[in-house]
Amino acid sequence: MTRRKVSNTLALALLGLLRERPMHPYEMASTLRERHKDGSFKINSGSLYDTVESLARHGWIEPVSTERAGKRPERTVYALTELGEGEFVGWIDELIRTPVAEHPKFLAAVSYLGALGRERAADALAERAGRLRRQCEDIRAVLAATVGSGRVPRLFMIEVECALHSLEAESAWTEQTIAEIRGGGLEWPA
Amino acid sequence: MTRRKVSNTLALALLGLLRERPMHPYEMASTLRERHKDGSFKINSGSLYDTVESLARHGWIEPVSTERAGKRPERTVYALTELGEGEFVGWIDELIRTPVAEHPKFLAAVSYLGALGRERAADALAERAGRLRRQCEDIRAVLAATVGSGRVPRLFMIEVECALHSLEAESAWTEQTIAEIRGGGLEWPA
DNA sequence: AATCGTATAGTAGGATCCGACTAATAGAGG
DNA sequence: CCTCTATTAGTCGGATCCTACTATACGATT
Does at least one atom of strand D sit less than 7 Å from the CB of B54? Predict the structure, then answer.
């Protein structure tokens, strides 16, 4: 009972791009960055090439040509296969329907918040809260510059809205918890 | 500029446990599960032993004895070192202060929500919403049975509250997005 | 008393991931 | 027109992680 053959979500991003047109790996990465998809996918040149190879091995994409400009390394252009197209949609469907447990680092740290002591805990949370606020602003700016100006359909940036929503929630929890610590509403056992 | 020597947050969990008393690896894992920390840390027997070894290699913990019960494999009991204690607190502080980009699978899928088409997207989101609601209820039940009954100090389960808060936020976003899709408030380009 | 399921305890080997590196070209600045 | 930096493009080796597996003990059931 082998799980899904390729599980890295970067693969999902690549499949999605190749639905538009064939590309070579480096172009996939830069296109994703241009479109601000680097918040939703971890784009790392190391794993990029591994992932492309793995997709090709499973027949979800295939090389269609190789080009060469000057003395630069040869670039292999890949295209989506029919198999890949089907897997793409099925995979998304599954990812949406079934929540999977993630283990964010913040949660790990919060588990031992007590170890910092009241003062330092409140301090650290306050610093985080500030950074979260700035991150939210940055994201709002991106949304304003794209969807806000009507240049990009909202659906194409919907995951950015989703990320913003969850950042805002984290921000709210953080502020509220600081208040409870400082206000004494949260007991602090030894 | 060396990165942090051990980066897996499971290591953080282990350090935290060993602050109470020395334990052998299997006991660490089962204690964490008992305390419902398996929502905040990914506990996997494979990585457990790797992580313990890595912590020992860096001198954050050290073997203090080996015991044997019957013909079972020998168990090595580890204790926290002073170095480990310091790193523990410093690590938590850093994790709290500095948000790091996580890349939840859901966000990846939402990035290509368009590929499902209106109907199917709303459907899939609705299924997720249902599961999220059930998860929230489960968590509330755990909180009621522990903190609610006064048997466990609230600070010891604070990360569960945090996780609940973020699940609720995701839940809300999901419901709201379903409504926008079904109500036509969200444009659906080809 | 033989069998079944579950808890205890850990190992081995491969898949995956990633940081650090190489190397060529284009364009900016002096 | 020469150097410097940024961008383009990709490789490589090792660290990490996890799945699947081994093996014993113990209580309950037939």
Answer: yes
pLDDT of res. A73: 63
* Closest nucleotide C1' to the C-alpha of A46: C18
B115 touches chain A (CB under 8 A): yes
Residue B5 pLDDT exceeds 90: no
Average pLDDT, chain B: 93
Question: Is pLDDT at A89 greater than 70 in this prediction?
Answer: yes
Reported CATH class of domain A9-97 = mainly alpha
Catalogue the long-range contacts made by B165-170 (C-beta closer than 8 Å, 24 or more residues apart). B165/A169, B165/A172, B165/A173, B166/A166, B166/A169, B166/A170, B166/A173, B167/B132, B167/B135, B167/B136, B167/B139, B168/A169, B168/B136, B169/A165, B169/A166, B169/A168, B169/A169, B169/A170, B170/A166, B170/A169, B170/B106, B170/B132
Burial class of residue B183 (count of CB atoms within 10 Å of its CB; 0-12, 13-18, 19+): exposed
Using C1' positions and the CA of B26, the closest nucleotide is C9
- A vs B, Cβ pairs < 8 A, gives 211
Question: Using one digit for the tens of pLDDT, what is the confidence trace for B40-88?
Answer: 999 999 999 999 999 999 999 999 988 766 555 578 999 999 999 999 9
